Amino acid sequence: MTRINGFLGRRNFLRFAGTGSLAIAATAIGGSLADSIQADVNPANPNPVNPTQALKLLLDGNQRFIQYKRQYPHQSLARLQLVAKAQYPFAAILGCADSRVPAEIIFDQGLGDLFVVRVAGNVASDIVIGSLEYTTAVLGTQLIVVLGHTKCGAVAAAIKNEPMPGMIGHVAESIKPALTNLNSTDAVIANVQYQAKKLQQHSKMLSQMLQAGKIKIIGACYDIDTGKINLIP
Ligand SMILES: [Zn+2]
């Protein structure tokens, strides 16, 4: 039995997925279940990247971005063909859906590098948590970055605390518990810390992997004006 980050390996995940919700997704895109799932399920990463190495790769990429020295790595046809066989993203990013915070650009990364989950206010919903469980437990990613950003509209809406149309209010409601008498910058940081904590509190898998030292979860804030990533202690 293959075990990745201490959890079910790819072979077992295939079995699990055959009766689970992923079967629906696989059917929906037209291929057979096995073909669809196997699109990214392969033997364990031959070159695993630990959390320290992963963070360095991200911060080095962000330095290139803010210094206008981007290298646009891993964006060739050869890379596309390579990652078509298997994906081993070295970091997972839980970021905001804000159009100004695209992970691959601000970290100067390419195809197959990052497992990115973006949702307004970088809110850790059940679906988000499931996605992060997948990349850590199945794909072998060892670093999760919860990435907030300055001038976040979702956080601002939560601070304003006014009625909003449609389901927009759900986003604000998911952020409000993090906020108590904070200004907007502090609120962004508080929200990152709150959502990062929620990942552990709502996911037995993630908290177990954390405690076993298999993964790391860190918080960071992207500065919309400068492009710089600042780590949150
Ligand atoms: Zn935002």
List keywords for this structure.
single chain, 233 residues, alpha/beta, Beta-carbonic Anhydrase, Chain A, 2 domains, five-stranded mixed sheet, two-stranded antiparallel ribbon, 11 helices, binds zinc ion
What does it look like?
By secondary structure, the chain is α/β, with parallel strands linked by helices. It folds into two domains: 44 residues, no CATH class; 188 residues, Carbonic anhydrase (Beta-carbonic Anhydrase, Chain A, 3-Layer(aba) Sandwich), CATH 3.40.1050.10. 46% of the residues lie in helices and 14% in strands. The strands form two sheets. A five-stranded mixed sheet has the order 4-3-5-6-7, with helices on both faces. The protein has a two-stranded antiparallel sheet with strand order 1-2. A hairpin with a 2-residue loop joins strand 1 and strand 2. The protein is globular. Bound molecules: zinc ion.
